[in-house]
Write a structure and sequence with these properties.
Layout lengths: L8 E3 L30 E3 L18 E8 L3 H14 L3 E8 L1 H9 L6 E3 L3 H9 L9 E5 L2 E6 L17 E5 L4 H12 L14 H7 L4 E5 L2 H9 L5 E5 L10 E6 L2 H4 L3 E6 L7 H14 L2 H9 L10
Parallel strand pairs: 1-2, 3-4, 3-5, 8-9, 8-10
Antiparallel strand pairs: 2-4, 5-12, 6-12, 7-10, 7-11
């Protein structure tokens, strides 16, 4: 694997916003900010290097773990990295957060990655088929739900997916982004879109036409969808329930879409074959993966509106 690395590392305590939305509008959305996760941004846990209780250097070898995460995981994973740092001060967790489709491409192109946490099975299936996953390391971690949201006080006539065509403008992730594919699948099941072998291939223009010509702002990941709605440049959007965490006073959930329409929204995790990683890095990656599957981590996931029941529904 080529020794490429994603630059632009941010501290876990810092979250930046670069909002993009309908009509290229840009404005502040309250005191909170939304992380715009692109291939140039990551998040790294911080803290003092390991010391034993008596102040001596910790004998554990310092190392970094490169973790590629779906954009919708950014907030909860920042928290988990900070907590993990308290347990393993010698390990720095570095995140690259973006849409699962973008992350898949980066891994296939040789970007250095130790652990992949996807928002859908499709991207993980492809890496498995490519022989890029560590055998036996794949696990399902959390479940999520697609929601239709608007900014509070927007006055929208939209009540959910069934009448999205009433919106003046819609923020929608493209088909390569899991939430974009799930939304398209739900619209198919509502007979608002024609059936397709792969809903991800349905273009934004086709969705717009099926909804009566509604203006759609195509977004590259779920965080950008959320930003477009929060800033008011798009009237409504489809995102994940977990992404509404922290924005309860600003967002109105118009509909929580059932898995009978979207299919299961389960997030898988797996170790990635990284030829550049030494033994310490590989071991640290496995230990962090185990931590994400622990009961302690599950409590954190639930506090951020994720469902830790990953049984197929």
């Amino acid at each position: 694997m080529k020794n490429k690395f994603v630059t632009g590392v941010l501290t876990a305590a810092a979250v930046a916003v670069f909002a993009a939305g309908c009509g290229n509008a840009a404005s502040e959305s309250g005191d909170k900010t939304v992380q715009q996760d692109t291939q140039d941004n990551g998040v790294a846990s911080t803290g003092d290097q390991g010391k034993s209780e008596n102040g001596a250097d910790d004998p554990a070898q310092e190392t970094e773990v490169q973790v590629f995460i779906a954009a919708s995981l950014n907030t909860v994973m920042t928290d988990l990295a900070e907590q993990y740092k308290q347990i393993h001060p010698e390990v720095t967790i570095v995140y690259n957060a973006d849409s699962s489709g973008t992350l898949l491409t980066q891994i296939q192109e040789g970007y250095a990655c130790d652990l992949f946490f996807s928002a859908a099975q499709k991207q993980m299936d492809q890496l498995d088929a490519d022989g890029l996953l560590v055998a036996g390391s794949r696990s399902n971690v959390v479940n999520n739900q697609v929601v239709v949201v608007t900014r509070k006080g927007s006055g929208t006539k939209v009540t959910g997916l069934a009448d999205l065509g009433k919106a003046e403008s819609l923020a929608l992730a493209d088909g390569s982004v899991p939430v974009g594919k799930y939304t398209r699948q739900a619209l198919i099941n509502l007979d608002l879109l024609e059936k397709a072998d792969d809903p991800a291939q349905i273009t934004t223009q086709q969705v717009s036409q099926a909804l009566g010509g509604v203006e759609i702002s195509e977004q590259a990941n779920v965080s950008k969808v959320l930003a477009a709605v929060l800033e008011g440049s798009c009237e409504v959007g489809t995102t994940y329930y977990s992404d509404t965490y922290g924005y309860e006073e600003e967002l109105e959930i118009l509909e929580t879409v059932g898995s009978d329409l979207t299919g299961n929204v389960i997030y898988p995790l797996a170790l990635v074959e990284n030829e550049e990683a030494d033994g310490a890095q590989q071991n640290a990656a496995k230990e962090f993966a185990d931590y994400l599957l622990s009961e302690e981590a599950k409590e954190v996931f639930r506090s951020y509106y994720f469902d830790t029941d990953v049984s197929i529904r």
